[in-house]
Design goal:
alpha+beta; name from scop; two-stranded antiparallel sheet; 2 strands; 36% helix; globular; disordered C terminus
């Protein structure tokens, strides 16, 4: 048995995909515990960058699979996509990787 105070909270993960011309990214995978670990593992194996934000993942977990993100998250996700673009550019040119954006969600956006 595990004491409640020593039990590690279940990890959560959400994967998004964006297709050129689509109105918004969509949720293509999400899960907790072992499923979350598998999502992260597959992303790492594919060389996909992973950004940790418990607050953002919590909001994305409420979106059904294959559904687009809501307009309230457009700005935050756009900032993450821009960060990923800068990472890819930095890797190609040998420059240092940029710091991740602040993905805290202002309460006025929810």
């Amino acid at each position: 048995m595990t004491d409640e105070s020593t039990r590690r909270p279940l990890q959560q993960a959400v994967a998004l995909a964006y297709e050129t011309g689509a109105p918004a990214p969509r949720v293509v995978a999400k899960g907790r515990g072992l499923v979350a670990e598998q999502i992260i593992s597959v992303a790492q194996e594919a060389g996909v960058f992973i950004h940790e934000s418990k607050e953002l993942v919590s909001l994305l977990m409420d979106i059904d699979l294959d559904q687009q993100i809501p307009p309230t998250l457009y700005r935050t996700i756009a900032e993450l996509l821009a960060w990923l673009y800068h990472i890819e550019s930095a890797q190609k040119s040998g420059l240092p990787l940029p710091a991740p954006p602040d993905t805290s969600i202002p309460l006025t956006e929810i």
